[in-house]
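User: For my dataset I need records formatted as: sequence, then structure tokens, nothing else. Please produce one.
Assistant:
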Amino acid sequence: MAHQSALIAEDIHAYLKSQEEKGLLRLITCGSVDDGKSTLIGRLLWDSKMVFEDQLESLTADSKRIGTQGEKIDYALLLDGLEAEREQGITIDVAYRFFSTDKRKFIVADTPGHEQYTRNMVTGASTAQVAIILIDARKGVLTQTRRHSYLASLVGIRHVVLAINKMDLVDYSEHRFKEIYNEYKTFAQDLGFTEIRPIPISALEGDNVLELSPRTPWHQGPTLMKYLEQVQVTEATDQRPFRLRVQWVNRPDLDFRGFCGTIASGTIRPGDPVMVSGSGQTSRIQRIVTMDGDLPEAVAGQAITLTLEDEIDISRGDTLSDPGNHPFRASRLEARLVWLHEEALLPGRSYLLKAGPSTTTAQISSLRHKVNVNTLQLKPAQTLAHNEIGVCLLRLDKTIAFDSYQENRATGSFILIDRVTNATVGAGMIDTAVEQRENNQWHRISLDRSVRAGRLGQAPKALWFTGHPASEKSTLAELVEKKLHSLGRVTTLLDENQLRQGLNHDLGFTAADQAEHVRRIAETTKLFVDSGLIVLATVTSPFRSERQLAREIIGSEEFIEVHVNTPIAVCEERNNSGLYRRTRTEESRNIAESDCLYEPPIAAEITVDGSSQDLKQLTEEIVNHLLGDPATLEWTI
């Protein structure tokens, strides 16, 4: 198979030892669709003799059956293994391949060029040290070329090979090569790359891949392989401050308690001091435990179990660090965010932020700007669409330990997860903590919620009336307030239509504006609840995630979700504004399809039938649930 096959046969231990001592380079190929990424990697595997005999037979047969090169070998088929990839001739998923030469080992990630699969490209780039940006010599620099270049810069790649491919289709033109290189260099000058190495290649024909091509006498080198063997990309993660995120607390018996994880950076030895970033407690390393026995030293990249000299509280998600150089801790962050989901980002909506093994609830409080990947200009924005990139401010429910992404990839990155679908919707890189100014910090006063509520003689609550438009939410809320007032309770009513005339007059009806509409009402409700009042808020809030956000803002103990469950046909009959008629784009669209405008609660505290004619009975049900016993005081509607 390989260039060292003889050594494998003669002395397998010597071969494994030689492989162990070689340096490892992680690289990624990226660029637009059909620029030749899979073909190039297939060529590298072929020319470095890293293709097994059974793979060779399969490749030969597949090239004749579904290849795109006639009778020639289609090297891309070594990478495009999915049936859909072979049918369409595109890369969909990230394909990782290993190969080696006499000087170095390589792990290469072949990433998709199609815009739809940008999230897969980000995944592959997150661990790469070198990016091979491929450009079709006929097409030049395209939008996806710029996007991938910006993403490579964003995730910390500093060495770029500009592989101008398919030179055979432009007659190996030096003028065309220089034209593309100059255009790309102008675009990338502000991306922070340490080096951009242009190489003219033909991945299909092998020109300048392993050997210099006589067809490009104007190119003096190096070849692609020679550059990859020689490029210096040492990140020196073992020289940085010690970081280990605890992935698991190992307690097999009463006598052993170890903390398992992979060292993100730094070096650790028995006797070294460590600090738990969350609590600030310190101890010293007692043992470094592995399956092969205890180690005298462990470095970045090793998966280990640490035992400490002292019994201190450490849980999954905590970070062990150097006490003299520990990570930041904050709950307000500024980060660069790549949005990876078809549904646009909604500032104010609640997401899950996962940083290593630690997970917390997070909101994107504001978007500073988004980036135009073609010009790299910063543009004001209220949301991010699929594959867009921006800088945002995040507010977390708890503090996390982190380093800036530029200092440490492992402890400076995170992903955002949709709380309803569990889909990964964003990938982020932390820049810094956002320190709140002293005069913006929460002012704690002695007259808190309990004191104010005690003075009023009632338990403060928030009744959140939700349901389809025209479901009778507002009518029912007014009746409930009237009943509570007759019982001596102190209340206030917040109706979303009235609030749109004042507090929310600047908001429209886009998805982002709707989410902000709900958030503002929830924040206002919280202020009234903190004053000891019983608040009745009538808010359509069609999405469960928005209502969950309101519950979190107000407090789960005070929040009571009242679902006015009125059939959609009844709502449409009551509505006079034409809302439901406007939701139909065709005459054939039936009423039931309008249900997609509203996600009904799964487990509301109170559910009533808004189509009932007996509103007094519905009011009694809600009041009795709120007060805990029958409210028998006579009253009239």
